[in-house]
Amino acid sequence: MKEIFPLIVAILWAGVLQAQTKQGSAPRKNNTEAAWVKHIPTEDLIKWRRHIHQNPEVSFKEEQTSKYVEDVLKSLGNIEITKPAKTSVIGMLKGAKPGKTVAFRADMDALPMQEETDLPFKSKVENVMHSCGHDAHTAMLLGTATTLSKMQNQLKGTVYFIFQHAEEQPPGGAIDIINSGALKGVGAFFGMHVLPNFPAGHVGILPVGAASTAQDIFNLSIIGKGSHGSMPHLGIDPIVVGAAIVSALQTIVSRNVEPGEMTVVTIGKFQSGDAFNVIADRAELAASIRTTSDKTRKQVEERIKEIIENITKAYGAAYELDYISTYPAIQNDPALNEQARKSAETTLGKEKVFDAPMMTASEDFAYYRKIAPINFMTLGIGKGAANHNPKFTVDESALIDGVKTQVQVILDYLNE
């Protein structure tokens, strides 16, 4: 997932457990388990996840990962395979009976960071790590494909298993897959993301409508005029200009955006100068902007550009601005959200399904809405470091619950 999840999930987890206690719903085993659960390849789930974890590949370079996925799908014997992009794989399973078409997506790319865990299967690749859980996503969808492949005679309709490249790196792999035209007739897209600091194996139903944020980025160069520190009147100080811009940008959320409309403007980079007694001639700034609606997204972009234009002009400086719009917000469909909740409760029990807070991270899964309605869920993986942290780990006991939920969601959608 793009960027780190907020640390507040730890507090929210406590709230989930407290709510369960109030409802008198202590964890219990689901005694009405479906017959197909026996087809879930429990041991292979762990094997697949650990192999992928040990051999991570960054965005657009998932060559060995996609080959590994392709080999597993081929071994099932009844999955049709296409390669919509160089490092993406789509498996298609046609049921014995005609019906609707549904897709479930997993992402496969890792992040450019050094792993700092003590796992016996830690990354063997220097400065590359599955610190967002995409190794778990890939393993779970392989488990779902394996389970459903053994149920082909009972299956009504068609299932696409999307193993996507490059979720972490804009413009993202989803666009490549959509533009390939490989997803014919899909009526709904589902996705799932692992999330630490929620109970392992508990499924979070994200809100209807904006379930995540849109993310925009800007890179700004302020071009001033260098001078000696003792003669500031002969220069144009880009640090002073930049400081004024940073301060003014903070008023966008407090004074321009409608109250209650989730918006974040974060200046993550401000670099200038090399010496204490020299006025630099240039400053470099970079920012991340999070919004949830198209209206606010446009409003914030316009306001940022106005502030930069007018402040630099007021100080006599020049500037170069690169404003990049990346992923839109995930917009969860109401009907699919309700179906996902019922499916998760059917296979896991109500006590393992909860209302998840909106993700303040962004995800290119949002693009699949260009084709059909979408639904995105979360899967708790227990206490631990946040996504995108070098100490990130997964409680592997959660993986089987992820597969159960995915299979039930697919079956319910096709059979409704």
From TrEMBL:
| UniProt-listed GO biological process terms | diaminopimelate biosynthetic process
A molecular function GO annotation: metal ion binding
The UniProt keywords, alphabetically, are: Hydrolase, Manganese, Metal-binding
Q: Which domain of life is it from?
A: Bacteria
Which Pfam families has this protein been placed in?
M20_dimer, Peptidase_M20
Residues that bind Mn(2+): C132, H134, E168, H193, H388
Q: How is the cofactor bound?
A: The Mn(2+) ion enhances activity.
Residue ranges annotated for the Peptidase M20 dimerisation domain, each copy included: 218-314
Q: What cofactor is this protein dependent on?
A: Mn(2+)
Q: Does the keyword Cytoplasm apply?
A: no
UniProt keyword annotation of Protein transport present: no
User: PANTHER family in the record, alphabetically?
Assistant: METALLOPEPTIDASE, PUTATIVE (AFU_ORTHOLOGUE AFUA_6G09600)-RELATED, PEPTIDASE M20 FAMILY MEMBER
Name of the protein in question: Amidohydrolase
